[in-house]
Structures are given as C-alpha cells and as structure tokens.
Protein: Diacylglycerol kinase
Amino acid sequence: MKRARIIYNPTSGREVFKRELAEVLKRFEQAGYETSTHATTCEGDGVQAARYAVEQKFDLIIAAGGDGTVNEVVQGIAEQDYRPQLAIIPVGTTNDFARALGIPREIQKAVDVILEHNVRSLDIGKVNDQYFMNIAGGGKLTELTYEVPSKLKTMLGQLAYYLKGIEMLPSLKPTKVKIEYDGKVLEEEIMLFLVSNTNSVGGFEKLAPAAKMDDGYFDLVILKKANLAEFIRIATLATRGAHLEDKHIFYTKANRIKVHSEEKMQLNLDGEYGGLLPGEFVNLYRHIEFFVSKEFIEKQDQITE
Ligand SMILES: Nc1ncnc2c1ncn2[C@@H]1O[C@H](COP(=O)(O)OP(=O)(O)OP(=O)(O)O)[C@@H](O)[C@H]1O
Structure:
C-alpha cells in the first residue's frame, strides 16, 4: 500500500482545511493510500515535516496551504536523494503554483484532480541554497509582497497586494544591476527582474507566456527603468501578455542567471523575502514529480508546438 503524508498549515488562508480534513483523509484511504497528517506549528516547520516524510520514505506528500507551505515542503525534499511525489491542495491566500498546475481552489475538487493521478516531473529553481517553484525576482517592485501584513492578507486576500501596490507606486526607484545569463552580460538600471518557472504570477497569468515547467529553462523578464506612466502602460500590456515586445522589457530564456548589484537589493522567492543579492539562479531540470491537472498537461504541450 502506498503511503501519503498530508502536511497542512492550519493558519493558511481562511483556515478552512481542518473542517474538511476527515473527508480528505477518507478519500485518500479509499484511493489506496495509507494516509497520515502533520499540522505545521510555525514558520519553517513545513521543511522539517517534509524531511521527516523523506526519512520515512513516504510515497506522496500532500501539501495543503498556500505558496509558503508548498515552498517549505519543496525546501525539505529538494536536496534529498529520495524525493516523494508532491501534490498540492491550495488553501492559502496566494496559490500561484497550484494555479499554474491547474489545481482547483475548492478542497474536494483539488482532491478529485489529485486522484486522477496525472504526474509530471517539473523543473524547480535554486538560488543561494534556497529553492523556488514559481518565480524569483528582485527590484523595488517585488518588495511589495512582504510589505502586506498577514492579517490584511487573511481578510482581503489577493486584493491586499494591489492596495499596497498602488500606495507604493510613486516611490519606486530603479536599481543598477549586472545580470549574467548563459554566458552573456546585461548591465542596466531596472525596476524589477523576474526569473520565472511558471507563467502564473501574482494574478498576472501571462507575465512569461512561454514559460514551460519541464524544459530546464527559466524565463528571464526584466523591466528597465520606467516612469510611472510607462509603468502603468506596461502593466496593462502585461495583463494580456503583450508586454514582451515593449522597449522597456528585456526577455530571454536561460538556465543559469547571476544577478549582482552595488545597491542593496532584496530577493523575492515565490512571494516571500529570500535574503539579499547577489544570487545565482540555477534551473534544476525535472527535479520533483508533481500531481497536475489534465488541463495543465494540455497547456504545456501547446507551448512546445
Ligand atoms: N502554525 C503556524 N502558525 C504560523 N505560521 C505558520 C504555521 N504553519 C506554517 N506557518 C507559516 O506560514 C507561512 C505562510 O503559509 P501559507 O503560504 O500556507 O499560507 P497563506 O495564507 O497563503 O500565507 P500568507 O499569510 O503568507 O499569505 C508559511 O510559509 C509558514 O512558514
């Protein structure tokens, strides 16, 4: 019998997972998994819980939470030789990665998709010994995501980011950076850089429209120095994926990217603070097996064509 470990964050999002846990457990048991649970107790506990699941040779980890919880589970398994498969039940405030995999936000519907058993080996990113699945970035613009207090996020969800973003827009300043990617060099004043593994980022579904999650490459998107009016225009273009041709945007695919800056620049990993630059981003090719939706597989196949 296969063994599954549910690692869930009881404080995630609107804190609804616990109420459905018994039903979720029943469904996994019925599907042939011997299933046990771990509720995370504090920041970092998801990493330890995932390491324990590795040691105990669980076949499957089901991470129930937001991007933060999934990220901790990935940190816990990514550097191990034995890596359990990973499924996600998105119950967080931000669930960009689950959305990228086509996992629905309703708990039982997410379980339906997981139990269809579509598994794919996907790339993940590594920078300075930390891992990310979705996106890493830097520049004043990316610093917004951790300016939003957790309470506000619980109450307002995604909207909290936008409110904070609008409040901060006028104070955004460019940063001078040197970016080396696959043997080439770019020196530029930038508003932000994004190293993307998926194309579903903070509500912008088409930020990196060609980002494929199993090709061994990141999509590097850089917004060069721009004034407020230009920024708003480009952000509008980005909502429909029409920004890459703009002269303020630099875009390429690369699997190894180094970013340095003389100025202090914070790193953002999957929406959370990830320390300071410099950083070297490395794409780990098809490193973890994820449970995905049929729609995800269809979409990925279309990108190849
Ligand atoms: N019991 C706990 N109490 C407080 N924090 C926790 C607990 N368990 C996990 N965490 C932390 O909460 C972070 C955010 O969790 P997660 O992404 O699942 O939920 P979220 O609702 O989307 O979170 P956020 O409030 O950051 O948007 C995790 O990265 C983890 O470090």
Summary: The longest strand covers residues 279-292. Residues 9-13, 40-43, 45-46, 65-69, 72, 92-94, 150, 153 surround adenosine-5'-triphosphate (CB under 6 Å).
